[in-house]
Amino acid sequence: MVAKVFENIDEAAERYSGLARKAIDYGRFQKRLMDRAVAQVPDYSPDEWLGLKDLVTDDFERIGNFKEVMTIDQMIAFLQAWAPTSAWEGSFKRVTEHDNVVILELEERVQHDGHWNAVNSVSIYEYNDEGKLRHLDVYLQAVPGDVEKGESYDV
């Protein structure tokens, strides 16, 4: 069995290249914007989330932890609304890359409405041959009752 090591995502990213690094950097991009949004940095703009479009295909699809399906435009709208109200942090566990698929395991911690939840997550990134993300599946493992579908997840 491969040991699961929790470490800083930025430090772990330095060891990877290729699509594995792209998957990690995708999350780091979102983390930077979430931090800017929640801190209400004066030059933060919700339009910064439009930068995600440079990383994905036109037909991108995300299937989230509640089986909600989002296009890139729906996901950006969700993140623009959610980011200023929530804090996110994560610890790296491991990443696996095969062909055009990357499996990324994290422990994620989210604060919303003053309450912190910790979950184990597995995200499966499917890239096209040009290295753009075309599909993302998100799976969560949580203590029962810790993760509830709230209005912020409505798309």
From TrEMBL:
It comes from the Bacteria. This is Nuclear transport factor 2 family protein. It comes from Novosphingobium album.
